[in-house]
Amino acid sequence: MVGLKLNSTDGLDSLMEPFTKHTGLVAPLDRVNVDTDQMVPKQFLKWVTREGYGRVLFYDWRYLEGEKPNPDFVLNLPQYQGCSILLARANFGCGSSREHAPWAILEYGIRSIIAPSYADIFYNNCFKNGLLPVTLPEADMEELFRRTDTRPGYQLTVDLEGQMVSDDSGLQVSFQIDPFRRECLMKGWDDIGRSLRFEGRIAAYEEARHPSAVMHEPLKAVTSDK
User: Fold this and answer.
1) In whole angstroms, what is the distance from residue 22 CA to residue 106 CA?
2) Residue 6: which pLDDT band, with cuts at 50, 70 and 90?
């Protein structure tokens, strides 16, 4: 499952797939204020594993009654099958803080989202799961939507190391990202992965302070004379 593979980064085990550069088919989700309840409806939040959420991503939009694919929803259109980059509009990921949303997006096969703005908690959860949310100005987003709509099979390259979004027609748009988050994504470090970098020091600390039992001589029973 994307984002949950075991990888080795600088000899360290990681629980998150590193992101350096990705080229993929682009799909346009031309809606503002897409909330996490639309990404993963509440009835699917009781599953005990991260697996299976790709099937229910945008469930109420993707399916008609009986889970029949909705032919009018963008991700069901033939030209966007196999997409791995999603264009979105402002305030993407608003609503509740459910981490199931980036799980579903990743399992569906999307590695990067490009939007003008995101809800804060969703934005943070993306980085914790190996999903790159790129923020671009509205004018650049309009151009990307235009190119996606007018060029069948339109692809973009998202270069995290170079902080650049580009296509094969000469378009190049730079983006900003927090250096710490950039490093964690490139090296595949989620919260656990960052801790494992110091596994040796943590083990040494615990060993040095390992509690040990102190044995005392048994107490003699005290009896009273009558």
Assistant:
1) 14
2) very low
- What CA–CA distance (Å, rounded) separates 71 from 193? 41
User: What is the crossing angle of helices 179-187 and 120-128, to 10°?
Assistant: 40
- CATH code of the region 7-194: 3.20.19.10
Q: What is the mean pLDDT of the chain?
A: 88
What pLDDT was estimated at residue 221? Answer: 67
What does the DSSP assignment read for the chain?
Answer: -TT---EEETTEEESS---SEEEEEEEE---SS-BHHHHS-GGGTT-SSSTTHHHHTTHHHHEEGGGEE-TTSGGGSGGGTT--EEE--TTBTBSS--THHHHHHHHHT--EEEES-B-HHHHHHHHHTT-EEEE--HHHHHHHHHHHHHSTT-EEEEETTTTEEE-TTS-EEE----HHHHHHHHHT--HHHHHHTTHHHHHHHHHHT---PPP-PPPPPP----
Give the tens place of pLDDT for each residue, 37-49: 999 999 998 887 8
Are the C-beta atoms of residues 166 and 153 closer than 8 Å to each other? no
pLDDT of residue 8: 36
Q: Return all residues near 108 (Cβ < 8 A) that are at least 6 apart.
A: 54, 57, 75
